[in-house]
Specification:
Elements: H1 3-21, H2 27-31, E1 46-50, E2 59-64, E3 67-71, E4 77-80, H3 82-93, E5 97-102, H4 108-111, E6 119-125, E7 128-141, E8 145-152, E9 158-162, H5 165-169, E10 180-183, E11 191-196, E12 202-207, E13 210-213, E14 216-217, H6 220-230, E15 232-234, E16 251-257, E17 260-270, E18 273-278, E19 281-287, H7 293-297
Antiparallel strand pairs: 1-2, 1-6, 2-3, 3-4, 5-9, 6-7, 7-8, 8-9, 10-15, 11-12, 11-16, 12-13, 13-14, 16-17, 17-18, 18-19
Length: about 300
């Protein structure tokens, strides 16, 4: 046998040996995805969310010019605060695999990453889909560690990632809306005017650092507690079918600082229902009948004496 022929035979045998003894190297390690999310946060235009709690229904958080909006279950849209839109995108970017949990489709239901039990997140950048991921159940591990099972929609592999993602993303549209009624620095406020349809209207003004009403000093502890609560007042009980155009407010609170209006809050009474709207969040109307919200907002003078 010539040297040339011998070299060819040895080369063929070497290839066969590699195929037999090293068919794919360490398959699990080689195919383990180190990155599941590859999106450009500045280019995201739409996020479609199908929460497990909505049982097959979905909604979207989308960019409309310079604003972010969310589609509601009634077909309308509402403004999404920019910080909430940013927080949503940041949460998606934190999805990083720490280990492979399963490679079989048979495990999908166990990990709740199948179509019927997962929360699905689809991210679009313009007309392109750059992420389609299924968020499954969480896993509590010691010490004090919470992980979540996830799967890319076009992949059989299930991964375990850090965080309680199933709770973070399994939310309905209202959770992305602006829930601010009043927000501000109470230390700069110097005048509050309470206008009521009855004869209980009053004003309170800050004079030399002390809150007064009709030349009467108000209780400092009670006043501080009320103003502190007022300065971070939120409500998530939205009313989307209320039209105030044909009705004057029954209650009004005007907050001012240095002769400038900080906020105006209007309250409407319709039978046993109380509705509140604020100039700080003009498009939102809230149900103030629940959790004694009306009492927290529109107080009487005696409560501050």
């Amino acid at each position: 046998m010539s040297n040339k022929t011998l070299i060819i035979v040895l080369a063929i045998l070497a290839v066969i040996t590699v195929i037999i003894y090293f068919p794919s190297g360490n398959k699990t390690e080689r195919s383990f995805k180190t990155n599941l999310v590859d999106i450009d946060s500045s280019a995201v235009t739409e996020i479609i969310i199908s929460p497990k709690s909505m049982k097959g229904k979905s909604f979207k958080v989308f960019k409309d010019g310079n604003d972010w909006k969310v589609t509601l279950e009634n077909g309308k849209t509402a403004i999404v605060p920019k910080d909430k839109a940013k927080r949503l995108i940041d949460q998606i970017l934190t999805i990083k695999p720490k280990r492979l949990a399963g490679r079989s489709k048979a495990k999908w239901s166990e990990f709740e990453v199948d179509d019927s039990s997962a929360t699905r997140i689809v991210v679009k950048e313009g007309g392109s889909t750059t992420l389609d991921i299924m968020i499954g159940k969480f896993l509590f591990q010691q010490p004090r560690s919470v992980s979540t099972y996830v799967r890319l929609s076009d992949d059989n592999d299930v991964y375990l990632v850090d965080g309680f993602l199933s709770m973070s993303f399994n939310q309905k549209p209202n959770s992305y809306r602006d829930n601010i009624v009043i927000k501000g620095d109470r230390n700069i406020w110097d005048k509050l005017v309470f206008n009521y349809s009855a004869d209980s209207s009053f004003q309170m003004t800050k004079v030399d650092g002390k809150w007064m009403s009709n030349n009467t000093k108000l209780d400092s502890a009670k006043t501080a507690k009320y103003l502190s609560q007022l300065s971070r007042l939120t409500n998530s009980n939205y009313i989307d079918d209320f039209n105030p155009e044909s009705k004057s407010p029954d209650y009004e609170l005007i907050i001012s600082a240095h002769d400038s209006t900080i906020a105006t809050v209007n309250g409407y009474q319709v039978d046993s229902l109380f509705v509140v709207n604020s100039s700080m969040n003009k498009e939102s109307f809230f149900d103030a009948s629940k959790n004694k919200f009306m009492e927290k907002l529109f107080i009487g003078l005696n409560s501050l004496k």
